[in-house]
Structure formats: C-alpha cells, structure tokens
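[Meeting: bench + compute handoff]

Bench side (C.D.) handed over the final construct sequence. Compute side (W.E.) agreed to return the predicted structure before the next meeting so the bench team could plan truncations. Sequence as handed over:
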Amino acid sequence: MDSHTPRFMGTLKRVEEGWTDYNGHFNMAYYAVPFDRTVAEIFDEIGVGESYRRRTGNSFFTLAAQLNYLRELHAGDLLGMTFRMLDMDEKKVHFIMEMYHAEKMFRAATMESLVVHIDMRVRRSSPMPPETREIFAGLMERQKDLPVP
C-alpha cells in the first residue's frame, strides 16, 4: 500500500467481465471507463455535472488524459478512486485520479486529466462563471495538504 491512506470519491466499481481480454486481465482500453464514471459522479456531487449543464447551458469537455497502468486487475476486482485537483485557470481544470484495488489496497492506475469549460450553445470554450471557479478553488483549498500522486 502507498504511504497515504486514500480517500475514495464516487461509488466503488467492479471490473466487468466484458472489460477483460484474452490475457485474463483488465484490458487497457477500458480503464478510462471507471475513471470517467467517477469524474461524472464527482462533478455531479460538487454541482458542475449534468444539472449544471441543464441549468447554465455550460459543461466540461476533456482536452487531454494520460493513463498510467501500474498493477494488473481482473474481472470482479473492486475499484476505488481518488480525485486530486492540481491546477485551474479561468477556462480549464487540471486534476489527477488514482485507481485502487479497494480490497487489497494497492494502486493499480492513475489518470491525469485536463478539462475545459464549454458554452454548449456555441460548443466553444468559455470562461467559467465566478461561482463555478469558486467551487474548484474551494476544492483545491481543501486538498492542498494531500500528497500529489
């Protein structure tokens, strides 16, 4: 186990049988699925998910994601995710997530992402409203003493 105790965010997820390959392990193409689902849950929880899009006409699109595969996982393994803000500006949010085997408590993968705020009416990037920037700034402040993976 890593030197810190992870605080999982979002719901725990299981590696689905259909996400495995002929080697009998979690296929690299599917690692993004539980990460993406967890981001959607976290964004919903903090108020910038689907309800934000409906209410404001704004959303977030992923610009870049870097996956690192650290340990092998198999069908049925229970996954827990961490979420750590790294940086932000008026249009973008930069974060990193860790995927853990939630029962054996080893880190299996990381995903670093950069998302951009989008005005859905024109489907172009746009500055976040002040209250949205405050949500992410508050999250960064609360996480400032957490270790960066």
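W.E. noted at the follow-up: The chain has a mean pLDDT of 95. C.D. will use this when planning the next construct.
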